[in-house]
Design brief:
Blueprint: H1 3-10, E1 18-26, E2 31-38, E3 43-45, E4 52-68, E5 71-84, E6 88-91, H2 105-115, H3 120-127, H4 130-137
Parallel strand pairs: 2-5
Antiparallel strand pairs: 1-2, 3-4, 4-5, 5-6
Helix pairs in contact: 2-4, 3-4
Bound molecules: zinc ion.
The site of zinc ion (ZN) has 8 residues, from loops.
């Protein structure tokens, strides 16, 4: 089994039309980037009406995922936009993240679990910074910051 196939299995991509096409371990500090590729089928589903449409184009998106040991991990994919006759060019949904989110479902689940157990500033320390801890303080994703400062609450903040 290749590393890409291992990550396919870990992300449960079988049957989704997606696969891991490259793994890159780079940068300083080191970070793991998993590049995902869609199978290139000629039709995709409109996120609004579920109609099967031709592909309008593809847009590169990035999602913060769970750390790989101590290293931050991000997923990168060129996500197809459906050419829907009713809704226009609509970004299709991906199996690993909620629509419009910059975080994978597993990463969101971890942050929400931690947010229920510790202050947001501690969540920020664990998950790697203010931007990611903001997820825990965002009521739109079901969390609430203990300081009541919403998205501004982060690592090292004292209110
Ligand atoms: Zn549509």
């Amino acid at each position: 089994m290749t590393p890409n196939e291992l990550f396919d299995a870990a992300l449960q991509l079988a049957g989704t039309g997606w696969r891991v096409s490259a793994t890159q371990f780079q940068g300083e500090p080191k970070q793991l980037e998993l590049v995902l590729e869609h199978d290139g089928q000629s039709r995709v589903v409109c996120a609004d009406c579920q109609r099967r449409c031709t592909i309008y184009d593809r847009v590169e998106k990035r999602w913060r995922h769970l750390n790989f040991f101590q290293y931050p991990c991000e997923l990168v994919a060129r996500v197809p936009r459906a050419d829907c006759p009713t809704h226009g060019a609509k970004l299709t949904t991906v199996p690993w993240a909620a629509a419009g989110s910059g975080f994978t479902l597993l990463f969101e689940a971890l942050v929400m679990l931690l947010a229920g157990q510790m202050p947001v500033s501690e969540v920020a320390r664990v998950v790697g910074g203010r931007r990611h801890a903001a997820l825990a303080a965002d009521p739109a994703v079901g969390g609430s910051g203990p300081c009541g400062q919403g998205l501004e609450c982060g690592a090292g903040d004292r209110h």
